[in-house]
Design goal:
There is one protein chain. The chain is of the alpha/beta class. The protein has twelve helices and 14 strands. The strands form three sheets. A six-stranded parallel beta sheet has the order 2-1-5-6-7-13, with helices on one face. Strand 1, helix 4 and strand 2 form a beta-alpha-beta unit. Helix 4 runs parallel beside helix 12 and helix 9 crosses helix 10.
């Protein structure tokens, strides 16, 4: 990754290690900064020449801005809109241009199709942000081989070792949602997760279980369902929960779009929110405020996550390496009208 030599030449971290200086100091020499001691500058310059370091082009007033790619799962949701907003604002501040692609190139026989990857290389993209995209080992290797830095935003599964990613504190969000319902006197609390294997979904469900255990409330396996982050599937799972002999009095739904499906299932049974059943979502998308009643939900800072990822990518494009590979931003509960004390 960023700390190893590649077919494109050594990275800045390799130069720093060989010259026995910090990465920021090596970056100053590369970029012509004057606040470096003469002996240090000489030592770094010698290593640059000896190892054949290739300086990455940076934004200058008389040159076009550096280009980065943003690959999102789709462009038809308010989730994607929040991600795009965060990237656009951070890119403007950094003097970068952004190319947006919807959907990740499929693979055949374990190999990436050449189209999207070749286009990325041909247009000279200096880095890539991936949102909700799962990369294969071959795709990781291709990016590393071409010395293209990349950052994952809310990765689907645990990324490969050393891959830089940004996400939300999903486990704590699940705890907060469940503790809120417990504080209202609910004990029969169900949860509808997203995909079982998706990292954020499993973390939110784990937070739900932890909060129940901490409160001494028995965990009921029949109260745990998965809706695949799909509104229609979530509606079906809520129908199943309402058909139980001892139906829940509250439900934590692991995304706001799924919560809308839960609303539909509850209305079908002639029940009312929150009088008969309380509902908590996760995301704080615009839909949460538009729902009737307005949805209590856990806010994850989507735009801030995207902006943080862009800033990390910019540092990597300059040859620096972030202090850690995983950055988590805080979540917080937003109380609205969909929760009330248990009867």
């Amino acid at each position: 990754m960023a700390g190893s030599a590649t077919a494109m030449g050594p990275t800045l971290s390799v130069i720093a290690r060989e010259a026995r200086v910090s990465v920021p100091t090596a970056s100053k020499v590369v970029n012509g900064r004057e606040d470096v001691a003469p002996e240090t500058r000489r030592r770094v310059t010698e290593v640059l020449d000896r190892l054949g370091y290739v300086r990455r082009p940076r934004f200058q007033a008389n040159k076009p801005p550096a280009l980065v790619d943003l690959v999102v799962h789709s462009l038809d949701s308010s989730w994607s809109g929040a991600i795009l907003h965060g990237v656009e604002m951070a890119a403007h501040d950094a003097g970068l241009e952004v190319v947006v692609s919807a959907g990740l190139t499929r693979t055949r026989g374990g190999r990436p199709e050449r189209g999207w990857l070749d286009k990325l290389c041909a247009r000279g993209s200096a880095g890539v942000l991936f949102n909700l995209a799962e990369l294969t080992a071959t795709q990781y290797a291709w990016l590393d081989q071409h010395s293209i830095p990349y950052v994952m935003i809310d990765p689907v599964v645990e990324p490969s070792s050393g891959v830089v990613s940004v996400g939300a504190a999903n486990w704590q969000g699940g705890v907060s949602a469940t503790e809120h319902l417990l504080s209202l006197g609910h004990e029969r609390i169900a949860v509808i997760g997203g995909y079982r294997r998706k990292m954020c979904s499993s973390a939110r469900v784990a937070g739900y279980r932890s909060a129940l255990a901490a409160a001494g409330v028995r965990h009921r396996p029949d109260y745990v369902r998965y809706g695949n982050f799909d509104q229609v599937t979530a509606r079906e799972r809520m129908r199943d929960l309402l058909a139980l002999p001892d139906r829940p009095t509250a439900v934590f739904v692991c995304s706001d779009p799924m919560a809308l499906g839960v609303y539909e299932a509850i209305a079908e049974q002639g029940l009312r929110i929150p009088d008969d059943i309380s509902v908590v979502g996760f995301d704080d998308l615009p839909e949460a405020r538009w729902a009737t009643p307005a949805l209590t939900t856990v806010r994850q800072p989507l735009s801030e996550m995207a902006a943080t990822a862009l800033r990390l990518l910019g540092r990597m494009m300059d040859g620096e390496r972030p202090d850690g590979v995983r950055t988590e931003l805080s979540t917080r509960l937003i109380e609205r009208s969909s929760t009330a004390p248990a009867r």
